[in-house]
Amino acid sequence: MRLHLCLLAALALAACTPNSADGQTGPVEADTTRFEGVPPGEAVVAERLPITDAVLAEDPPGRALLRDYARRALFPQTIRTAAHLEEVFALRDSVIAHLDPRVEDYFVEEDYALVERFFAEAEAVGLEPLTAEGFVLGVGPGVLLPERVEALGAPDFQLFMAFRAAHARSLSGEYPYADMEPLRQAVLLGERLVYEHPESPHAAAVRDDFEGALLTFMSLHRHDGEWFVGPATTEFYPWASTDEAHRRFAAEDTGSRFHPAVAALLANPSEAGGEALDAVVFATGSDAYMRQHVLDALAEGIDALDVLPLDAGWTYYGAVYRYFPAGDARAAQAVEAARAKGLEAEVQTIPLPFPYEE
After folding, report:
1. What's the alpha-carbon Rg for the chain, to the nearest Å?
2. Are the C-beta atoms of 298 and 260 separated by less than 8 Å?
3. Structure pTM?
């Protein structure tokens, strides 16, 4: 349930933009030829998006927004200028803001044929249904009008929209961390946007999601011969993962500032398990402060991988280079490796963040 709530909260934030208050986007310009040959929105939705429209049956403003959006998203010839491009994406955010809170209740009966039809409709108009444990939990931004984005969008806008789609995909799935490729893409796209366009408002808009994606990607670790994601987790659901995306990152993404850290992670991953952990800690303080310590180290190519609570009550945190089951000799070796990279590291024995429960 905690995963469901976090996922829904993340999408609610992603869907809210300054232009999305009840969809009051308005026409971009007076252009009498722009919609020539395009059917009215009501007809477009009835033919192409009937399930999506049904989800919004008790939301007249949402249905009106969907009609305006469908006339643009399904008819690329209406997107002629950068202003048109911004308009259609703003409309999409407004539609998401109305649709996202309603999909879980609408599909609660697990009518799989209906869900499949909704998925097809959503994909056609650049929406990404978010699922977990067999349930539709929300809707996020998907890939929308890629040819128009490439032709009309500024470079930072292109990266912004590509990041949002990759990040939304990374939040969804029967086992959300079984496929880390969307998260890899989110890290790479977010890196380019944040570091190549630091003054862009789009960079500021994605920073929190980008940093969260990076920390999740770098939290890969071993337990009982398997790969897991998260803070020293050992539960199969939802934390089970693979190293496939990381190996691809190490092989292909050599230009990324995070490449050295990813390669070092694969060469010497942390390991969870046992009654307690020996954590190689190089700074202590609040969760937010330690998060920044780790992010700064990663930006410099240093393989500082985690933020872990140092006490059972989760009130005090450490920036962690590696961790192993208490008593494992690898912790002492990791201390030396961390110090060689300029980190003032020491071993601290800490409780398991997520004690295993039968």
Report:
1. 23
2. no
3. 0.87
